[in-house]
Amino acid sequence: MNVTPVPDLPEIREGDDLAALIDERADLDSADVVCVASTVVSKAEGRAHDLDAFPAGPRATEIADRLAEITGEEKDPRFAQAVLEESTDLLIEAPFLLTETRFGHVGVNAGIDRSNVPGSDILLLPKRPDESARRLHDALSVPVIVTDTCGRPFRHGQRGVAIGKAGLPASHDWRGEHDRDGRELGVTVESIVDELAAAANLVLGEGSGGEPVAVVREFELDGFAGSDELFRDVETDFVRQALREWSYARD
Amino acid sequence: MNVTPVPDLPEIREGDDLAALIDERADLDSADVVCVASTVVSKAEGRAHDLDAFPAGPRATEIADRLAEITGEEKDPRFAQAVLEESTDLLIEAPFLLTETRFGHVGVNAGIDRSNVPGSDILLLPKRPDESARRLHDALSVPVIVTDTCGRPFRHGQRGVAIGKAGLPASHDWRGEHDRDGRELGVTVESIVDELAAAANLVLGEGSGGEPVAVVREFELDGFAGSDELFRDVETDFVRQALREWSYARD
Ligand SMILES: Nc1nc2c(ncn2[C@@H]2O[C@H](COP(=O)(O)OP(=O)(O)O)[C@@H](O)[C@H]2O)c(=O)[nH]1
Ligand SMILES: Nc1nc2c(ncn2[C@@H]2O[C@H](COP(=O)(O)OP(=O)(O)O)[C@@H](O)[C@H]2O)c(=O)[nH]1
Ligand SMILES: [Mn+2]
Ligand SMILES: [Mn+2]
Ligand SMILES: [Mn+2]
Ligand SMILES: [Mn+2]
């Protein structure tokens, strides 16, 4: 398996034809998978905004005040307002905001970025990353994953994950397959889009590298059953259930 | 970046010199990173056991009885005993066991496997995966990651993660670095060992493929600050704090 960044992409602006920009610079084969950092998808889709676009309501003001008090840092209530508008569920509201976005992804601050956003205050995630991936897939005729970098419980640091995809399943479903001794497998569902996003993130980085797109070559997608769910429902997610009952209390 | 499985590895048995078996089959360069599935590290280290080695105490029996009642499946109390003996903290005890292992990793059933374990009932994770990685690193003179496949909250399915490493940092620490506009970065700590483990897992698979080792080539490890923590402390992990207060209740 080979993972290579697409070279020489320009700064992406609203309305840019991202598929064409990629296609001109990558010699794509039908067996390739294209991984695109959500940041450039968002830019192309006009998801960069100034904070003035999010006048804070009372809930956002309350949240920002509490965060400011807890962290001792200034917190702009308009940022909290943007997070609330992007979210359908608030999992943690202090000492940071962890929410479920409208499309089902759980992330800190609803995945809103303040890095790599020239000329604007914030960059929202794509509105419907599966549809963004679908449009790129239709234009490029290869499987497409839209990625973001985000944190997780239990383990330090952040890593690349898939937030949308088209043209490939979310997971390799090993159910019914067997191990080396003919036993049914313990691991049943391998989230290949997340593993591909993680691999892509290694070559994209988080900084000023200017490489928002990676092509994965020689990863075999054929010959296995796929399943399509990327995000868990709260009903099967005990961590989310636990967070519902929990609230932050300073010692 | 290139990720390739090491070909023709045999079934690994207790006492096997895993480093020599890898070295004979991989033409390693000093810039390569070797990712080894914990399953073969465990086999080499004699971590395969029969359940008879874990006579169940009252706590394990109580846990297994409750799990059997909830799931409607038979649950062997000796398996619960093995999980307890491998663990220092029980995060979820129903409807499945989520624990912290003695070396700090959080996983279902303390990462104990029942697939790919010929001739024994169960395979425990390596006792100290950082030390396992260190021994392989000393013998192979390249950075080494010991991987496992495990699940996570919020997202469906499992993916490869690092449970031990030597010769490279856990994370690329982007603190102090800047984005394309000179702003300080939002993402600060990228868990490269987990991203490398995820990439490796794509080529290893979960089944009967017989490929427990992958070599990562052309991933640039120089020129950045690293940080070394892999596992979060409970003090900074709000999800773990929430789980402490939570318990499963059937509707
Ligand atoms: N060429 C180009 N690269 C960009 C642009 N925006 C971000 N990048 C690069 O894309 C990569 C990922 O950026 P990041 O901010 O981490 O994106 P995210 O993970 O989707 O939030 C980095 O190498 C950035 O330098 C852009 O508009 N044009
Ligand atoms: N050659 C060889 N391959 C093995 C052995 N044990 C497991 N594998 C392979 O290693 C890969 C990963 O196995 P898995 O059970 O998912 O390991 P885990 O993720 O570390 O728990 C699969 O391709 C297995 O077929 C072994 O003893 N010898
Ligand atoms: Mn982002
Ligand atoms: Mn990123
Ligand atoms: Mn395992
Ligand atoms: Mn595995």
TrEMBL record, chains A, B:
Keywords: GTP-binding, Ligase, Magnesium, Manganese, Metal-binding, Nucleotide-binding, Potassium. Residues 9-218 form the Coenzyme F420:L-glutamate ligase-like domain. Pfam families: F420_ligase (PF01996). SUPFAM superfamilies: CofE-like. One of its GO terms (molecular function) is GTP binding. The keyword ATP-binding does not apply. The keyword Lyase does not apply. This is F420-0--gamma-glutamyl ligase. It comes from Halococcus salifodinae DSM 8989.
